[in-house]
Amino acid sequence: MNVVMIGSGNVAWHLAPALENIGLKVTAVYSPNLRNAKALTQRLYEATPAISLDFSDINASLFIIAINDQAIEEVAKELILPEDAIVVHTSGSQSIDTLGYIPTEHTGVFYPLQTFSKAKKVDFRKIPLLIESEDDFTKKTLMKIASQLSHEVRHVGSEDRKALHVSAVFACNLTNHLFTIAEKLLVQKQLDFNLLKPLISETINKSLTLGPQNAQTGPAIREDLETLENHLEYLEGNEDYASIYRLITQNIMDTYPK
Amino acid sequence: MNVVMIGSGNVAWHLAPALENIGLKVTAVYSPNLRNAKALTQRLYEATPAISLDFSDINASLFIIAINDQAIEEVAKELILPEDAIVVHTSGSQSIDTLGYIPTEHTGVFYPLQTFSKAKKVDFRKIPLLIESEDDFTKKTLMKIASQLSHEVRHVGSEDRKALHVSAVFACNLTNHLFTIAEKLLVQKQLDFNLLKPLISETINKSLTLGPQNAQTGPAIREDLETLENHLEYLEGNEDYASIYRLITQNIMDTYPK
What we know:
Low-confidence stretches of chain A: none
Order of helices and strands of chain A: EHEHEEHEEEHEHHHHH
Helix content of chain A: 40-55%
Oligomer: homodimer
Largest interface: A-B, 97 and 97 residues
Structural class of chain A: alpha/beta
């Protein structure tokens, strides 16, 4: 099966080679930025960069749109596909209807529930792949490909996928930013972020083992008001951090009323 | 060396047996709640529960106050120690001066930079132990004990320890609560929190490998306003979660201006 990858960002960067590893062939990579398209083709066997969205003459049957959410609809409007091709997007938050502009029934969603950065290798076998399609042929094809890539494949509708995506932002993006805040607070005092690493590892370890509610510790759940006040006083001059501290702390106290 | 543990909470629960593992002997455990004191003595060789803070007749030279921050000063005022005993607290946020009421020079801080829950074993060798004392004898003794427990021992003053503690709350307690929010959002839709586990593992993995700033992904750093608005719309009815989402998202955008 030949694949065209539309996009060259973090998801495309890892998904395209993973597809080649299970025997598919990526023939072309489209990006509005040619240099980015070229960079991704260099990770692939025979792919060439594409500069137009007119694929009417290409020998490919799967088109994967792995780009910013806000650009998907625009690309869907411009895209010209060969007959019977399947086209999917990889977005967690966009409905399958975003592909409604494409004159085919063979539309679907292929959402890898993971965080991707170009600099960090990932193991696709452990990534939950959430598939959606209302078209039987498309669904079967996507489920088959997904099952070869990963041990965890599910059919998930647009509404549930959105719930998962919002939750994923809390559990990943917002969480990671709290580590950034922690690092910045330490840097202000010339202290070493490495000192927090065992704590961070154990936090996650415990949360995944006991479940986050059983793993909660700290001054907020103890209602240790003196420490909370001390910390807010310490954060004077870092008003944004103080607001974030205050808001999550309040929510912890509301979640576990004494 | 004989030790008295004052407190029977999460830190005492793990620290007391760890001290016995390196050859110290815990002779008594004090807690205002006798049942809690008894529960901890059952994890120890010969410790007995203590019901008073008058330890003038006990054969022990190290007293560890491992209790809620707000109770430390009160206990310090009531505590009666044998001659030449060392007394420390284990708090990240309390100054060493909190022990100023105790009529001895041998005061110090013994702060394990880790999250402790009774239900979860920890490996003390990997826990940074942050020591403070202005008294040479105390400092030497604490550094020696700490070095037997852990590979990562540092002398850290009260101000720096407070910075580490505030950062630790961001990196651990607040982070863990974001996992709780993620779980609650999924439960609202009868979705399985296990689906997020590979994402959570990889988030931490990546943050510790690349550093949190290099690991940041998601709609906020992409300034994907459409997705951000979608998510906030999704969170209508969960106003507290929406506020937390909005505030951290704004801080991500401010941290990485386009």
